[in-house]
Design brief:
By secondary structure, this protein is of the alpha+beta class. It is built from 7 helices and 22 strands. The chain has an 8-stranded antiparallel β-sheet, with helices on one face. Helix 1 packs antiparallel against helix 5, helix 3 packs parallel to helix 6 and helix 5 runs antiparallel to helix 6. The radius of gyration is 20 Å and the shape is globular. About 50% of the residues are buried.
């Protein structure tokens, strides 16, 4: 996988969503050593419903981001308890799957690396199984054992840090999904080498969104959006039309296209979410695990599929793989598909898979297939 260390919109009068967060970090002027990282949404999710639509909206902070659930067409007395039940399930999953919680099953596996297998529950087994499936499909671009690099990069303003060549040489050999041993019969997981660490930041949120959606549907809610960071899950409709989700421009405070979808997961990884500049280059949080360095050939990847679980897993893998390899492997994606993708490469060229060519609605003109850039921003 790519290392991932570390979309709300509003409408105007003609119902076009606009990004509400600061612009992503752009290339610095020549006389600027670095710019602080500026978080930005990777997908611009649906705005609140117009007043005439009955809706219930709740938000909470968990899994390192803000989770929002927005239900249309149901009263508070029906939607409210279901939303709270969904949040409760997501918090439970966080307690099981977060490597940042010392009592989680993932932390127990990490602590026992090179020593002994750890018995785990079905949620951990499911995440590791899908992670390894994605690792095989992506030739290791996705790898749950990436977490040994956790402390080598820092993106906090004023504390930026990049690893030395010696640090990378020491850690990179510990990243190997083939050494994550799973015994489904005994329900155990074993990391074969001491020092290995698992990190679920690239998959657990998608799994949790799917579980939250299942709770809403069991409660009889059919028209809803669940938003978490760069991932949006939509079901049913918003009033008379499908849900509208925008795709963030990697170098501008706006989105360059949108999709109107139902019953879908939309997941985005971008090089602008956590980034700073040093020595004339952009350092960001999506790392090629073969080199330990930030990927340079991609700026954003947006995946559309029917599973938040698989969408969350593959978006960073596709970022690493790049447009050509990703498009060539879409017919064999984990989970069986279907899956579509919009990729913006380092030259700002937009690549759209066949299943979205008739669905994507561009908001910005392309020149030779490339997105426009602000005059002060270089393409790299």
């Amino acid at each position: 996988m790519a290392l991932s260390l570390a979309c709300a919109c509003r409408t105007n009068a003609d119902d076009k969503p606009l990004a509400t967060t600061p612009a992503p970090a752009a290339a610095p002027p020549k006389d600027t050593a670095r710019l602080p990282p500026v978080p930005a949404p990777s997908t611009a999710a649906e705005p609140p419903a117009p007043p005439e639509l009955v809706h219930v909206e709740r938000s909470t902070e968990m899994m390192g981001t803000i989770i929002k659930i927005f239900v249309v067409g149901e009263p508070e007395e029906k939607a409210g308890p279901a939303i709270e039940a969904a949040f409760t399930e997501m918090r439970r999953l966080e307690s099981v799957l977060s490597e940042w919680r010392p009592d989680s099953e993932i932390s127990q596996i990490n602590a026992a690396a090179g020593l002994h297998p750890v018995k785990v529950g079905p949620d951990t087994l499911a995440n590791i199984k899908v992670s390894n499936e994605t690792s095989v499909w992506s030739d290791g671009a996705f790898d749950l054992s990436w977490a040994v690099l956790h402390d080598l990069y820092t993106f906090r303003p004023g504390e930026e840090r990049v690893p030395t060549a010696a640090e990378l040489a020491e850690r990179l050999p510990l990243i190997d999904y083939k050494r994550i041993r799973v015994d489904e019969k005994k329900q155990t997981v074993f990391l074969e080498k001491k020092g290995m660490r698992l990190g679920t930041g690239g998959i657990a949120k998608g799994y949790a969104l799917d579980r939250a959606a299942a709770i809403l549907q069991r409660a009889g809610l059919q028209n809803y959006m669940i938003f978490g960071g760069g991932q949006v899950l939509v079901h049913g409709k918003k009033g008379e039309r499908n849900w509208r989700v925008g795709i963030q421009h990697p170098r501008m405070n706006d989105y360059f296209a949108f999709l109107e979808l139902t019953d879908a997961s939309i997941s985005t990884s971008g090089d602008y979410e956590h980034a700073f500049f040093r020595d004339g280059r952009r350092w960001h949080h999506i790392i090629d695990l073969k080199t330990g360095m930030p990927v340079q050939h991609t700026t954003s990847v947006t995946v559309v599929c029917n599973s938040g679980f698989y969408g969350d897993a593959v978006d960073t893998a596709m970022f690493i793989m790049g447009a050509e390899k990703t498009l060539s492997k879409l017919k064999t994606v984990p989970g069986g598909g279907p899956m579509d993708v919009v990729i913006v490469d380092a030259d700002m060229r937009v690549h759209v898979s066949a299943g979205l060519k008739d669905k994507i609605i561009m908001r910005m003109p392309l020149t030779d297939g490339k997105l426009p850039l602000p005059p002060t921003v270089s393409e790299h």
